[in-house]
Design a protein that fits this description.
542 residues; single chain; alpha+beta; 11-stranded mixed β-sheet
């Protein structure tokens, strides 16, 4: 090695030493032993899965809460019963939706207990009330425990009990108390329909059996709502004091249809009560005094203004009432002294006797009374020990007489009260006889006619409970029409069909069964399988 090369090596060594002193060597960084778990694809997708799961669970909970609130506010349950016992009629829905005042329905019972009682009637009432409340925000339902809230009962003069519905108007402050058990009606083996107490009497002591049982809960609830909401209800006054017949059956028909009823002893009042809209003389066994007749006449005349209506129902008994007879004659009507016998066997019903005193009656379809009737198909209007009502004239001065109902056909005779064992029916005239007749007087206010009317019925037995409550007779509808036709109720009344509980089976029609089967057996499983395949295909790439 040359001398010059030695010098270069030394210089290089020195320079390297100087550099080492000027820039000290850095410590080596530790080697990474693995990937950051928070940056891995698995963490990212796993986190997303957790987030989506939490969001889905929260969404499900939120949707469940919202749906529960909606279901509580809007009743959307389906009625799958064969007879639609939990479904309100269209007329009822229309009426409830149109209520424009606060309506409170108190129930003295526990809602859950009633709904889960296993008794269709109580379940039906709860369902009806839920639906009504959901239809209109002005309608509210409150369940009250009489034991834990004893002050509630103090608001009412009547004694309350469990399982009643108190319908109260927030506008008029009027109320009506309904007992749920009284909503039940039973059709017995004789074909007639009776309320619970009477039906059980016939079953226990008469040997009858129950062929069907129905509920008129809807009718009772709507009627009570209509009744309490009326600011100026129609008032019917029953006159008493002359041994009148029991009018409780007719009274119930009226109160069930939103009328207000009252009684007045005619001899103890100065005049017929001023708030009376329709007056009723119901089958008196004693004759009216002349003073009582005068009070009735003054009320009907109304100072010459007319505009009043009276219904006179005669007794089937052989009584002597000359003053009443004379007053009816002034209106052109006479109640004959005997019963109608029907000799047309197609219209006669024999009750253990060869004399047919129970028979079909015909309604005059041209009258406002017929138009006011809500008669069910296949029902009959039945007469029983009915006295003929004879028109003394058709028209006279400002008076007109109109037949409302008559005996069927012209093969009828009169069985006189004076008949004995020697009576020969062939001696009596055979013809058609009338049984309900309207007599009217009219005056004109300009071109507007204003009437006072007297409607005469041939027997109180036309409104016997067996006839008025039986579903195959229309006597109850006829009785109500005699009042409705002379008020504004004819236009606003609704017809509600009682619901049978006999067939309570839950069933779907064939189309619904196939649709539900396809959805649950085919569509939903296919959707689940497809969703599973999509999720599996995406996750296998992670």
């Amino acid at each position: 090695m040359s001398e010059n090369e030695d010098i270069k090596i030394e210089e290089t060594t020195e320079n390297t030493a100087e550099t080492a002193e000027e820039k000290p060597t850095e410590a080596p960084k530790p080697k990474k032993t693995g990937k950051n778990p928070f940056r891995s694809r698995k963490f990212k997708y796993g986190s997303l899965s957790v987030i989506f799961t939490v969001i889905c669970i929260a969404a499900v909970v939120l949707i469940n809460v919202i749906l529960n609130l909606v279901l509580d506010r809007f009743n959307v349950e389906a009625d799958l019963t064969a007879n639609k016992v939990f479904t309100l009629s269209e007329d009822t829905e229309s009426y409830v939706r149109g209520i424009n005042e606060d309506m409170i329905l108190y129930v003295t019972g526990d809602k859950d207990t009633m709904k889960n009682s296993g008794e269709t009637l109580y379940e039906q009432v709860v369902e009806f009330l839920d639906k009504m409340e959901a239809m209109n925000s002005r309608v509210s339902v409150k369940y009250v425990n009489l034991l834990s809230d004893p002050d509630f009962a103090k608001s009412f003069t009547e004694t309350l009990s469990n399982y009643q519905v108190i319908v109260k108007s927030g506008k008029t402050n009027r109320y009506r108390i309904l007992t749920i058990s009284e909503f039940m009606r039973f059709t017995l083996s004789d074909g007639n329909t009776y309320p619970y107490s009477e039906a059980m009497m016939y079953v226990n002591y008469g040997g009858y059996t129950v062929s069907d049982y129905t509920s008129n809960a809807e009718e009772q609830l709507v009627s009570a709502m209509m009744f309490v909401s009326q600011e100026d209800p129609t008032v019917v006054t029953f006159l008493t004091g002359y041994n009148e017949a029991d009018h409780s059956v007719l009274d119930k028909i009226l109160t069930d249809n939103a009328y207000v009823t009252q009684t007045a002893e005619i001899d103890k009042v100065q005049a017929v009560l001023e708030d009376t809209d329709i007056l009723v003389i119901y089958a008196p066994r004693d004759d009216y005094s002349l003073d009582a007749v005068t009070k009735v006449d003054e009320w009907l005349s109304n100072g010459g203004n007319y505009g009043k209506n009276m219904i006179y129902v005669s007794t089937p008994d052989a009584v002597d009432t000359p003053n009443l007879d004379e007053y009816l004659a002034e209106w052109g009507l006479e109640v004959e002294k005997g019963y109608i016998l029907q000799e047309d066997t197609s219209a006669a019903y024999y009750t253990g006797s060869s004399i047919a005193v129970m028979h079909d009656l015909q309604l005059n379809e041209e009258t406002s009374y017929y138009k006011a009737m809500k008669i069910a198909a296949g029902s009959s209007f039945i007469g029983y020990y009915v006295r003929p009502v004879t028109k003394l004239w058709d028209e006279k001065s400002n008076m007109t007489n109109t037949v409302v109902a008559s005996a069927y056909g012209d093969k009828c005779r009169i069985f006189p009260f004076t008949a004995d064992e020697n009576w020969d029916p062939s001696q009596e005239e055979q013809k058609a006889y009338d049984v309900i007749v309207e007599a009217s007087k009219v005056r004109f206010d300009g071109s507007t006619p204003i009437y006072s009317r007297v409607i005469v019925c041939g027997s109180e037995l036309l409104f016997n409970q067996n006839f008025t409550s039986a579903s195959n007779y229309s006597n109850g509808e006829v009785a109500l029409a005699l009042f409705d036709a002379n008020t504004e109720k004819n236009e606003s009344s609704i017809r509600i069909v009682e619901k049978s509980f006999k067939a309570e089976t839950y069933q779907l029609d064939k189309t619904a069964q196939i649709t539900i089967g396809v959805i649950f057996a085919v569509a939903i499983p296919i959707i689940i399988i497809i969703a599973g395949i999509v999720v599996w295909a995406k996750r296998r790439r992670l």
